[in-house]
Amino acid sequence: MVFLSSSGGGMSSFMLIIWVVIIFAMLYFMMMRPQKKERQRKEAMINSLEVGDTVLTSSGFYGTVVDVQGDTVIVEFGSNKNCRIPMQLQAIADVEKPLDSTKVAETKADKKKAVETKADKKAKKADEK
Predict the structure, then answer these.
(1) Rounded distance, CA 17 to CA 60, Å?
(2) What are the pLDDT digits (tens) for 82-108?
């Protein structure tokens, strides 16, 4: 019954317990929670892995996914079609999805339109002067 004692020592032990709880809460929010979010992000990335995706391996090599078989993936490195290496999914550090040709065409059209708009504005300013 340390907490119920009338001496001042009871309050200090209660404060100690509060500080321990605060420290554990800080450890959770600063270390464990971000680590859990990163693990979930990596799992989602690996689950969305498809044939044709460009991947960065944990050793720093870029390659293209040729086949996905369970927990292994066959990655083709470089332009040499003979350099295909089976790897574990956990060795994939990052995945880059290939752009659709329609998205690339839209991006190019948007850039061209922006350049034409700037040229039109400059021409109007020159005509006004």
Answers:
(1) 47
(2) 889 999 998 999 898 877 545 555 666
Q: What residues contact 64, with CB distance under 8 A and at least 6 apart?
A: 52, 53, 54, 55, 75, 76
Q: What is the pTM of this model?
A: 0.54
Tokens found for residue 11? 């309050």
Quickly tell me which residue has 């993936």 as its tokens: 73
Locate the domains of the chain by residue range.
1-47, 50-96, 100-129
Q: Which residues pair with 6 in a beta bridge?
A: none
What are residue 18's phi and psi, to 5 degrees? -60, -45
For residue range 16-68, list pLDDT tens digits in order.
999 999 999 998 889 888 899 999 999 998 888 889 899 999 999 999 999 99
Give the separation between CA 54 and CA 78, rounded to whole angstroms: 11
Class level of CATH domain 50-96: mainly beta
Phi, psi angle pair for 84, to nearest 5°: -115, 125
